[in-house]
Design brief:
The complex is a heterodimer of chains A (440) and B (460).
Chain A: H1 11-36, H2 42-63, H3 72-90, H4 95-117, H5 125-142, E1 144-146, E2 149-155, E3 158-160, H6 162-178, H7 199-204, H8 206-224, H9 228-246, H10 249-269, H11 271-281, H12 292-304, H13 327-359, H14 364-388, H15 406-422
Antiparallel strand pairs in A: 1-2, 2-3
Chain B: H1 2-29, H2 31-36, H3 41-48, E1 55-56, E2 62-66, E3 74-76, H4 83-86, E4 89-90, E5 94-95, H5 97-101, H6 103-106, H7 117-123, E6 131-134, H8 138-148, E7 153-159, E8 165-171, H9 179-188, H10 197-200, H11 210-219, E9 228-231, E10 234-237, E11 240-243, E12 250-253, H12 254-260, H13 263-273, H14 276-282, H15 307-314, H16 324-335, E13 340-341, E14 346-350, E15 356-359, E16 364-366, H17 371-386, E17 399-409, E18 412-424, E19 427-435, H18 441-458
Parallel strand pairs in B: 1-6
Antiparallel strand pairs in B: 1-2, 2-3, 4-5, 6-14, 7-8, 7-19, 9-12, 10-11, 13-16, 14-15, 17-18, 18-19
Helix pairs in contact in B: 8-18, 11-13, 11-17, 12-17, 13-15
Chain lengths: 440, 460
């Protein structure tokens, strides 16, 4: 229950978001200087406005006396501001659209955080997941194809990707169902053996059976949309969530084997997946053809060097799909190794901090929700940065908070909101399961 | 379940470390190679915005310049016989010659392309590329061009003391400005006007190799200034008989053997030297290309040491083909006390404001023979010009040494060669000149050498 008079001013968040806002304004000024020769140009205002979205989010959270973590939203703001500067540099014509996505997303983040905090999210996971599955089915029937994947629905000219929102539903459904497992309760004393849940034990619970079913349906529909990257992200994140909830290593090993088999099948039945794998294993074999995109990313990375060529001096648009899938490599040319290590560091700190916060969650459901959201963000960031760097086969997914795209931006910020809400120290409204928490 | 969350945290840390390592690999370890790769589209794009630097001779006479930004407006001036060396930079035909090898400088990216990121934002891309000053002297070049007089052939002049290439004339040539319209006819022409003959033309050296063989034989102890050889007019080398056109020379010393170009004496020395001879000639770079800032062909000296191969090697025939620059380098080593200086074609690179960003300095390439051997060989070459086979190169007021060659080849009449040197007022200049299918070296090539030497020494 919310305690009156508790300090909820969120001073740390104010300082951090303020710093990010200032840095966003500075990167905008640098961009403006490089492009128009003036420090105070449109670019400065736009970048600053992207930072202001998170200042507004901060004020809303403080006004609602939300007492959760204060670092997460600042790091999300840093990722979004860096990404926004890169998108703005590549496509000025998309600047206002992307800015509105950030503002809408920041609002969604606050709403999701408060929704999660107040406990209204509890029990809604399965309903959302069923809705997401229905939407995916509708996409399969009615959707349109973009970039090899049939994952778009158009309503009145505005397109969106249901698979982005299916990720959130998967996380919430997982948190709801798996928190019922006894293995989620902490051992009464550090010396006692931790609880583990066997597969049979899990299967015996009806909510868990239903969860596995709806997860499989969502992953299968995503694969049928030929959006193998997103399917892999959901699959890996959910397996990691089951591992955290159950402690069952066999689940991990079995799922890895099943995943490998699935990838082999995908290579066989979807020609574009096999081509992506071939392009990854030897990018120089067909540099002008199938691996054109990744080879152009290498040239951009190399041309950036240690310190980068500076905003406005590079040619990042030479990489196909630069503002969306290839944003990391495209921005690396101008911000250099120093900048790309900085970008990696932002995600490292954000997700690392999210896991650390998840450990302090006040109930198993809150912890699992935080872990699930962090999993999705971690796997997606790794898959796409790794794809840009040639570590993994390139998949058409976005860099969370940074890449251009409304569905992706809003869904990523909603996940960040769920993460935030799950870190709340106090219980704002009857969470149905708060018995196992180690909160205050 | 916290320990399981901490395992995910550990996996995430490992993942980030992998990403950071991969980023470091592409942006630091292999960055320069990727940035400078010809397939990197940034390079072609950068050229469109740059004012390409000029190529000038040692006195600043413009050989190639751009009148405006971009690759479309290249203008070529200067002696036509330099055209194959300077090459061309053309938006559709590509680049050749010095325009190709000096391209990174001419387009202003001679400095590391990738590591100037932050600086390039402040200073912007250089507006103009760097200019290249050659060691070529247009005056000497024109003298060579006049000597060739439209015949197929090449002439190369070196400053033996510091390795500077003063002239590299190639004939025939084709003016780059007309190249695009005449491309099909030009590449079909049998006299190959695009080949830079002094550096990339490969010919059997004929008797011009004999100074190198004499030097090697002296250093092996097989001959000295007092050695007398009895020439009977022919000698057996493996299955072949090699004879002298002039008949038996009788008892001759090494100097006279050079002056009269006595085949029998040199075949005799080569057979005595055996397998050591190809090895010693390798020190004259006859088995590879010389280090130079322009495209350069490699000599084809092999290590084969059968009697038959040695006999052919001794008279510069057989499988051996070399460039005129290789031959000039032998003469330069002879006059420079056995020391072969690194040949230099580019004197300096300077920026639009005139500031020199790179300057070449003399360097020793190798010492293929001792100073004593060089002195004896030089003596023989002086005799050759004084009264021997090369006397048509005689200049009354100057010290001139030389060696003629008449190289048999499968394309018709023999190639006429002259390789030699002159010394005047402390300058040592070496020359190689070849007239393709010109006939006798002594009658065709040697008289041309005299006119080139006179122009070099009196011209400045």
């Amino acid at each position: 229950m919310m305690t009156a008079g508790r300090p909820c001013r969120r001073d740390a968040e104010r300082s951090l978001v303020g710093t990010v806002m200032l840095l966003a304004g500075l990167s905008g000024a640098s961009l403006s200087l490089a492009r128009s020769g003036s420090v105070f140009g449109l670019d400065t205002v736009l970048c600053f406005a992207a930072g202001v979205a998170f200042a507004a989010a901060h004020l809303l959270l403080a006004a609602a006396r939300f007492d959760g973590d204060q670092v997460i939203s600042a790091l999300v703001a840093a990722a979004a501001a860096t990404g926004y500067a890169s998108v703005l540099r590549l496509r000025s014509d998309l600047a206002l659209r992307q800015l509105s996505f950030i503002w809408i997303g920041a609002g969604v983040m606050v709403a999701a955080a408060l929704w999660q905090w107040k406990g209204r999210a509890s029990g809604s996971g399965m309903a959302l997941a069923v809705g997401a599955a229905a939407l995916l089915l509708a996409t399969l029937v009615l959707g349109q194809e973009r970039g090899g994947a049939r994952s778009w629905i158009f309503i009145g000219g505005m397109g969106f990707q249901p698979s982005e929102f299916a990720k959130i539903a998967c996380v919430l459904a997982g948190a709801d169902a798996l928190s019922a497992l006894p293995a989620c309760r902490e051992a009464p004393s550090p010396s006692a053996a931790p609880h583990r849940a066997g597969l049979g034990q899990m299967w015996a619970l009806r909510p868990v059976r239903m969860l596995f079913l709806i997860w499989s349906v969502i992953v299968a529909f995503t694969v049928f949309q030929r959006d193998v990257g997103t399917a892999a992200i959901i699959y890996i994140s959910c397996v990691a969530l089951v591992y955290v909830a159950s402690g069952n290593r066999l689940v991990v090993i079995g799922s890895a084997a099943l995943g490998a088999a699935g990838v082999a099948m995908a290579c066989k039945f979807f020609p574009h997946v096999g081509v992506r794998f071939a392009a990854w294993s030897n990018p120089w074999a067909d540099a002008a053809g199938s691996s054109y995109q990744v080879v152009q990313a290498f040239y951009a990375l190399g041309s950036g060097g240690m310190l980068g060529r500076g905003y406005g001096s590079g040619s990042p648009w030479l990489i196909p799909a630069a503002p969306t899938d290839m944003l990391f490599a495209a921005s690396a040319e101008e911000i250099g190794l120093a900048g790309s290590l900085g970008v990696i560091a932002i995600y490292f700190l954000l997700i690392g901090h999210a896991y650390a916060c998840a450990m302090r969650g006040r109930s198993p459901r809150q912890r699992l929700a935080a872990v699930g959201a962090a999993n999705i963000l971690a796997v997606q960031a790794f898959v796409i940065i790794g794809g840009n760097l040639g570590v993994l086969p390139l998949t058409g997914v976005t860099l969370p908070f940074a890449s251009y795209g409304g569905s992706s931006m809003i869904a990523s910020l909603a996940l960040a909101g769920i993460l935030l809400g799950a870190t709340a120290r106090t219980d704002a409204g009857g969470d149905y399961d708060s018995s196992g928490g180690d909160g205050p | 379940m916290n320990h399981r969350i901490s395992r995910l945290l550990g996996a995430w840390m490992v993942g980030c470390a992998v990403l950071a390592l991969a980023a470091t690999y592409y942006q630091a370890v292999t960055a320069d190679r990727l940035a400078a790769s010809p397939a990197n589209p940034r390079i072609a794009n950068a050229e469109k915005g740059i004012w390409r630097g000029s190529i000038v001779d040692r006195n600043g006479e413009v050989l190639a310049e751009s009148l405006e930004r971009g690759a479309d407006s290249r203008v070529y001036r200067g002696p036509g016989s330099l055209a194959p060396l300077v090459g061309y930079a053309h938006p559709t035909l590509g680049k050749s010659g010095l325009e190709s090898t000096m391209d990174p400088w001419l387009t202003g990216r001679g400095w590391s392309y990738s590591r100037t990121g932050l600086l390039s934002t402040i200073s912007r891309q250089p507006e103009r590329g760097y200019s290249v000053r050659l060691t070529i002297d247009s005056h000497t070049q024109r003298a060579c061009e006049a000597a060739l007089a439209g015949r197929r052939g090449a002439a190369v002049v070196l400053d033996a003391a510091n390795g500077e290439v003063l002239a590299a004339a190639s004939c025939p040539w084709f003016h780059p400005a007309l190249l695009e319209s005449a491309w099909d006819t030009v590449i079909a022409r049998e006299d190959s006007p695009l080949i830079c003959r002094p550096l990339a033309g490969l010919y059997p050296p004929g008797s011009t190799i004999k100074p190198a063989i004499a030097g090697a034989a002296i250093d092996m102890g097989l001959a000295s200034s007092g050695t007398v050889y009895d020439c009977r007019g022919s000698i057996r080398a493996g299955g072949a008989i090699i004879s002298d056109a002039a008949g038996a020379h009788g008892s001759i010393d090494l100097g006279t053997a050079i002056a009269l170009s006595c085949n029998t004496a040199f075949v005799h020395l080569a057979l005595e030297a055996g397998a050591r001879l190809p090895e010693a000639l390798g020190k004259f770079y006859l088995s590879r290309s010389l280090p130079l800032d322009a495209p350069m062909a490699a000599g084809t000296l092999s290590g084969e040491a059968s009697d038959e191969a040695l006999g052919q090697l001794a008279i510069g025939q057989g499988d051996l083909v070399v460039t005129p620059l290789h031959v000039a380098m032998i003469a330069a080593a002879v006059v420079n006390h056995g020391v072969m200086m690194r040949p230099r074609l580019v004197a300096e690179i300077y920026s639009d404001s005139g500031a020199v960003v790179k300057r070449s300095s003399p360097g020793v390439l190798g010492v293929p023979m001792t100073a004593e051997a060089a002195r004896i060989v030089a003596g023989g070459m002086l005799e050759a010009v004084e009264w021997g086979t090369a006397r048509a190169a005689n200049l009354p007021d100057y010290v001139v040494g030389g060696k003629t060659g008449t190289a048999e080849n499968p394309h018709g009449a023999p190639h006429a060669w002259f390789a030699g040197f002159t010394q005047h007022a402390g300058r040592k200049v070496a020359l190689a000149i070849i007239i393709e299918n010109g006939g006798s070296g002594g009658q065709v090539a040697a008289p041309l050498a005299g006119s080139v030497f006179r122009a070099v020494l009196s011209g400045r």
